[in-house]
Specification:
homodimer; alpha/beta; Cobalt-precorrin-4 Transmethylase, domain 1; Methyltransferase, Cobalt-precorrin-4 Transmethylase, Domain 2; 2 domains; five-stranded parallel sheet; five-stranded mixed sheet; 12 helices; 17% strand; diphthine methyl ester synthase activity (chains A, B); EC 2.1.1.314 (chains A, B); 4pyrrol_Methylase_sf (chains A, B); 4pyrrole_Mease_sub1 (chains A, B)
Chain lengths: 296, 296
């Protein structure tokens, strides 16, 4: 049996009691370590779980999954995933490969906390979120804004958008690669401030280009909430305009950002405003652009 | 400190290791038992956690929360919630009351698995879901279809809709109440089949009434996925048309239903079709109405 086990968001003790029992008895234990990371290192997990853990990078999971699945039709293998098992499509893909294996490998999934629901800690109602989008690091000549039309779709319906932020772990250094050397760049995690900055930039670029490409959905005075290390003791939530959030340092990773929809209800506002950088300004903009618009 | 602790979806061992430690040492332990239920009874939790548990019904949480919060500025109180703490707005409300209490009561939330992400087990991508909607039991003279325009908004964008199904626990029997007696009805949990049935009915009613009120979004041949007891060993997933699902018995609660959006990608289809009641028909409809529409 292949057990795909969610670890939750913060540390070694966010695994479920059931998940821990399986980890302790499994033949081999893998940790997927490229779509998200915990706030603690692998050796902390190993010490707590009493097991040695094999790191599964993107290449192993996507191209060499045979090594993970070997013998799993007979013995138990645990595949640990930060957050919830189905937070990344790559895990559904792994489950599918088990099913299509000959002989088929039975799988079982143990769900756990995900950023998709933990974001409820902001006070924004999970029922008022539209589709989730991803934001990648803008590079010099590559500033992909495919997130923009999706945010716009949500915004048109008055819905919030959760924006998941890029992480780069174990990326080969391209300059070293040109010289024939295989060196890894240090890990990079996008901050909520960087995300806000990129959103403002795209809004400006669109405004400066063709007519109609800019819609104002990620303009300076749009309200948003930045979150960091949700679900951990050191979690941090900061609310404000995108312009304000672009200046906020939320500390260590992982960060995410929520862009608020105009249906933001009075009850949500009452909760969220406690996290505001500048409460007076937050209230003013909420009353001007959001308040009462959600009444149906 | 008030700890709002998610229990996950299935049984007593889905609590996190961290959550269990808090439950064991808390002064009092409450279980919120009206927005969702576990698949095991309170006494199973009590035996496993080694604690006696106070059931908190809707009235206690919403109108008499003082009893829950009493002394929580000095001692630890655990408030257990099935699924994830922020899956229901009532819990955000409780956290807000702690903050506004005098003196303020510190709170901490321990996220856990939620149906909102566990539904990824269907193979449908969590990034392709729009807003979540709720379906209540239709009564003789009350058939509220406020879910319909929201499903339509998602459908217009090609997005999936997760539909959470009504549960009725500890509801007073109205006929007995008329006679001055306070008797509770047995608990009721909406099945995926009942939900599909109600959706078909509303589509028909709208088609028979004014022009333009019916849009076909919950018509007979729309593809959907019914899920039951997700995250447990006995989880069941069945895919098919709404008409087919209205005839499917998924067994014991809790059930939910996903209405598929036309952006359903080939990879999602490949996963989901394995759960189809009638795979040939499922494939045919997918190819006719969904396939390739999601390519951007």
């Amino acid at each position: 049996m292949l057990y795909i086990i969610g670890l939750g968001l913060a540390d070694e003790r966010d695994i479920s009691v059931k998940g821990l029992e399986i980890v302790k008895r499994a033949e081999r234990v893998y940790l997927e370590a490229y779509t998200a990371v915990l706030l603690v290192d692998k050796d902390v997990l190993e010490a707590y779980y009493g097991r040695s853990i094999i790191i599964a990078d993107r290449e192993t999971v996507e191209s060499r999954s045979d090594s993970i699945l070997a013998g799993a039709d007979k013995v138990d293998v645990a595949f640990l995933v930060v957050g919830d098992p189905f937070s990344a499509t790559t895990h559904a893909d792994l489950a599918l490969r088990c099913r299509q294996n000959s002989p088929p490998i039975p799988t079982r999934t143990l769900p756990n906390a995900s950023i998709l629901t933990a974001v409820g800690a902001t006070g924004l109602s999970l029922y008022s979120f539209g589709q989730t989008v991803s934001m990648v690091f803008y590079e010099e000549n590559w500033r992909p804004d495919s997130w923009y039309p999706k945010v716009k779709e949500n915004a048109d319906l008055g819905l919030h958008t959760l924006i998941l932020l890029d992480i780069k772990v174990k990326e080969p250094n391209l300059k070293a690669l040109e010289r024939g050397k295989y060196v890894f760049d240090p890990p990079r995690f996008m901050t909520a401030a960087q995300c806000a900055e990129q959103m403002l930039e795209t809004e400006e670029t669109r405004a400066a280009s063709e007519e109609g490409k800019s819609t104002g959905v990620s303009g300076k005075e749009r309200l948003a909430v930045g979150v960091a290390r949700l679900g951990s003791e050191g979690e941090k939530i900061v609310a404000g305009t995108l312009e304000e959030l672009a200046q906020q340092d939320l500390g260590k990773p992982l960060h995410s950002l929520v862009l608020c929809g105009w249906k933001m209800h009075e009850m949500e506002w009452e909760f969220v405003r406690d996290f505001a950088v500048d409460r007076e300004k937050f209230d003013e903009i909420w009353k001007r652009d959001y308040a009462g618009k959600g009444v149906q």
